[in-house]
Specification:
The protein is mainly alpha-helical and 179 residues long. It contains eight helices and five strands. The mean pLDDT is 90.
Length: 179
């Protein structure tokens, strides 16, 4: 979050109406210094929302998702934003490199590089045509690759494959002795 706040400070100089919404709990593993947490809570234009039961309502109001993570699983929030046509600027780490097609659906920057993060955000925020192109491609990719029907079918197929290895019949239930 330190890099995100630094990038936000750099962007505010040229974009005084910019707002930053911090959604979700802070990661305890990040060991965020108290001064940085205080900075987030007191910087004009930064909105610390914490857990939000309907984050899509916030996403509907944003132009870009910024996710400068140090570690990430798959990054479901990237796919949720993508379905809404919102591009992502994130860090080049496992998980995000799978969820963001760099230069196609968003931009990826090195980890812990506030300057690169600010420049990528400036590029996307300052170019409506680029933002539209990235967002449209993100939506198309999310619907094509990550639709729940497709993912559920792939998961089911994998469970069926594993069940077959265990000698279970299709459908996943062992046959019982007859009556």
């Amino acid at each position: 979050m330190v890099e995100l706040l630094d990038a936000f400070d750099a962007l505010k100089k040229d974009m005084p109406h910019l707002h930053l919404f911090l959604i979700g709990p802070f990661d305890n593993r990040a060991e965020l210094p108290a001064a940085q947490l205080q900075r987030a809570r007191t910087t004009f234009g930064v909105h610390v929302l914490g857990y939000v039961p309907a984050p899509e309502k916030i996403l509907a109001a944003v132009d870009v998702l910024a996710l400068p993570s140090y570690r990430e699983g798959f990054g479901n929030v990237v796919i949720e934003a993508a379905v809404m046509g919102i591009p992502t600027v994130g860090t080049r780490i496992n998980g995000l490199i799978d969820a963001v097609a760099d230069g196609e659906t968003g931009l990826l920057v090195p980890v812990r590089d506030a300057g690169a993060l600010a420049e990528a955000l400036r590029r996307v925020l300052g170019d409506a045509a680029l933002r539209q192109r990235l967002g449209a491609a993100a939506r198309e990719r999310a619907l094509r690759l990550f639709a729940s029907e497709r993912i559920n079918a792939l998961v089911l197929a994998e469970y069926e494959r594993l069940a077959k290895l265990k000698g279970l019949p299709p459908g996943g239930r062992k046959q019982r002795g007859g009556s």
